[in-house]
Write a structure and sequence with these properties.
Number of helices: 5
Shape: elongated
Number of strands: 6
Strand order of the largest sheet: 1-3-2
Radius of gyration: 21 Å
CATH superfamily of the largest domain: K Homology domain, type 1
Order of helices and strands: EHHEEHEHEEH
CATH class of the largest domain: Alpha Beta
Distance between the termini: 28 Å
CATH architecture of the largest domain: 2-Layer Sandwich
Length: 138
């Protein structure tokens, strides 16, 4: 769900180059970029590779741990929410960072817990999906 893209101007600032020089590097296929409309976007990984930054030196992503506590959940609600969140997770496509999603339902207490460990944007998307699916009738 979240990959860091840079504009030509941002790359030029980071590398200390003129934006036209960055465009020439893209045209010469020395710097990978994706054309979106009339402008280019450069992935952080492609910029790091071009600049010679090893993956160990690049910035590690921030991760968020969220616990959703849902009392008075029925077994059907728990199963439907779990399936819906897993489907939302699968539909997000390829991402550079993994997402950890775990659900636990206690039928005796009618209690559902959902644990999400992911980047902030991925966490926000899953929590938004939770709100959407929770509002649907069971």
């Amino acid at each position: 769900m979240s990959q860091t893209f840079f504009t030509v101007d941002q790359v030029a600032d980071r590398l200390g180059l003129h934006p036209k020089t960055v465009l020439r590097l893209i045209a010469a296929e020395r710097l990978r970029a994706t054309k979106i409309g009339k402008s280019y976007r450069i992935l952080r990984g492609d910029l790091d590779a071009f600049a010679g930054v090893s993956p160990e030196q690049s910035v590690r992503p921030v991760r968020v741990t969220s616990i959703v506590d849902m009392p008075d959940a029925t077994r059907d609600q728990a199963a439907q929410l779990t399936a819906a969140l897993q489907a939302a997770l699968i539909s997000r496509g390829a991402s550079s960072t993994p997402v950890h999603l775990e659900t636990a339902f206690d039928p005796a207490a009618s209690h559902l817990k959902i644990v999400i460990i992911a980047e902030p944007a991925d966490t926000a998307a899953l929590l938004q999906a939770f709100d959407t699916f929770r509002g649907a009738p069971a």
